[in-house]
Amino acid sequence: MSTRIKRRYGLAAVMVVAVWLCSGARADVVPEQQILGTWLTQDKDGTVQIYLAASGKFEGRIVDDSGGPEQLDDKNPDPVLRTRPLNGAVILQGFRYTGDGKWTDGTIYDPDNGKTYRCSMELKGADALSVRGYIGAPLFGRSVLWTRVKPHPR
Q1: Is residue 43 part of a domain?
Q2: Domain range enclosing 93
């Protein structure tokens, strides 16, 4: 193969890699893990960290609550849990990835009323997450939009 042809193949390979890098594609993030991270609630009154639990399911815990570290889970139906701080409380449980940016079969706990609802979540872009709590069927519920909290540059 001539040097001229080798240069063209080399240049083409460099261009393909450059386009891939500039597109924002990340080979290190598998689709089901795109939900991982910290999310600001729609009302901007708290942040929830979503993580992969030891069970292999996705969960989420409050990591910052506007009520401060002393705010307690006083609406919890379990009297023992009414004295626990809301910061650190697990409010999302049991989610599994079903494809196409959707997680289902989970529950969400609402500390404002002490109730737990069935829940599904769907990415609406890299930094927007639709969270739908419902009773019975998704038709009977409401959705809120959470936004991803960007890490602070160091």
Answers
A1: yes
A2: 29-148
